[in-house]
Each structure stands twice: as C-alpha cells, then as structure tokens.
Amino acid sequence: MKEVRIDKWLWAMRIFKTRTIATDAVKKGRVTVGDNPNPVKPSRTVTVGDVVHVRKSPVTYSFRVRAVTENRLGAKLVPEYMENITPQSQYDILEVVKISGFVDRRKGLGRPTKREGRELSKFTDAAGDDGWDFDFDFDDDDDSDEALD
Fold it and tell me: pLDDT digit string (tens) for 68-123?
C-alpha cells in the first residue's frame, strides 16, 4: 500500500496553497489524523482510509483519504482522492462568523482598514446626533461668579 507524507498530501489535495504553508500548519499542531487528538509531525504518512482533521480557525475540517499522491492535482480530480466529511455544524459556525462581520484583530496589530475606518466614523457621527450641544464656553460664567461675591 502506498504512503505519502501528510504535508505533501495536504498540498496536493489543495487544502493549503503551498507545501510550506501545509508544513507550517502541521508543525503548529493544527493537523491530526484519526481519533488520536495529538497533533502529527510533517513526516507522518497517510494511507487510504485515514481521516485527517485540519483546523483553520474557527472551523475544523475533516477529510477521508480515498487515494494518495505526491503530485498536486487539478481541482476537478480532488474528489477522486479525498472525501470531505466535515460535519454541517462546522459550516454553521463559519456562516455565523461571516454574518457577524467580526474581524479578528488583536490589540496592536496595525491600523484599521479603510472600511473599518468608515464604519467607525459612521458610528461616532451617529452617536453625536443625540441632541446635546456642547459648543459653549465655560469661561463666560466667571463674570457672574464675581458678581455674586
């Protein structure tokens, strides 16, 4: 039975765009095989019948290996070599994230995009239309305080 490295297989099945990205994902512990929850190493081999779980935040995709190859395939040939068995619940999570429009940017990771800037200015402009007028000078009352003394 033929075996192939998992990083090569992930790249060949078009799960990752480059083999380097596939290898990095495996090294970071985002790929598991079978029921074993422990992450695998890039040199781990896959065979026909294995179930590969790939975590791409926020979804964990699952694929069943139908055949193995080391060469990258055309997109139309991929279904002959793997079967996508990702549960519908994972796709529901992805849909919720898309609908919410939440952009996952941690503090300190750069400036907002133009779109986010427009949304922020729209939000702050809307918050400023609450009827309050703060365009007066606090120093005008100083004369009246002296008159009271």
Answer: 998 998 999 999 999 999 999 998 888 887 777 655 666 667 777 888 888 888 87
Sign of CA dihedral 104, 108, 112, 117: positive
* Structure tokens that stand for 120 in this block: 């922020």
DSSP string, the chain: ---EEHHHHHHHTTSSSSHHHHHHHHHTT-EEETT--SPPPTT-EE-TT-EEEEEETTEEEEEEES---SS---TTTHHHHEEE---HHHHHHHHHHHHHT-----TTS-PPPHHHHHHHHHHHHHHT-SS------GGGGHHHHHHH-
Predicted TM-score (pTM) above 0.85: no
Class of 4-100 in CATH: alpha beta
Tell me the domain boundaries of the chain: 4-100
Retrieve residue 1's tokens: 């039975």
Q: Retrieve residue 11's tokens.
A: 């790249």
